[in-house]
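[Meeting: bench + compute handoff]

Bench side (C.D.) handed over the final construct sequence. Compute side (W.E.) agreed to return the predicted structure before the next meeting so the bench team could plan truncations. Sequence as handed over:
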Amino acid sequence: MWTFEEFESRLRACESRYHIHHRFNQRLNLGELQPFQVRAWVANRFYYQVNIPRKDAAVMSNCDDRAERRRWILRMLDHDGHGDFEGDAAGGIEAWARLGEAVGLDPADLWSHRHVQPGVRFAVDAYVNFARQQSWQEAAISSLTEMFAPKIHADRLAAWPVLYPWIDIEGLAYFRSRIPLATRDVEHGLDVARRWCTTRSRQERALAILRFKLDILWSMLDAIERGFPDDMPLAQRP
């Protein structure tokens, strides 16, 4: 076995495959995309957002440890909302819907997933099915892509108000809220990995799972990039 420190280092080294390095994301954060492409990204990513609680419910359905379910359910509530479901308690899905409005998407188009590309739908559905079919520990480890999320959120918060001044800044609240939540979730995910990966074989399995999830996120951007090229006809643009 690797020591946990070496194992964690190998997990974090997978950052090189994170979609922050995808050309479409780089163009997004350099201000090189047209408004319709920003809207397309928001609309397609929304399909991922609304499926995250379904993925988390699948994790809990496979978990026979009540203490773990109590910790994991926080992730569902982060997205679906909690308490009075108002303001910050409305949850991440509502925050993303506000981002959709801020970039100019018709709410009906956003919620109907009208603009979602087949490749995005396939990738997200594969992720939810993975969580349903594998052990809860393996599904939990797949969420360790959160290790790399604070940087991508911080980049958007810093760049978008300058590069895309036409976007209502209030619509960026989702990115701001996710930075502390991602940090909390990573601590939990690493704790699960520490306890489950008791053999070299399981450590290597965890790395393969993390790469699988990174491929999911990368393939989503591949599909969006192909589906919404710079010269897309006006009539077809979101």
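W.E. noted at the follow-up: The two ends are 50 Å apart (CA to CA). C.D. will use this when planning the next construct.
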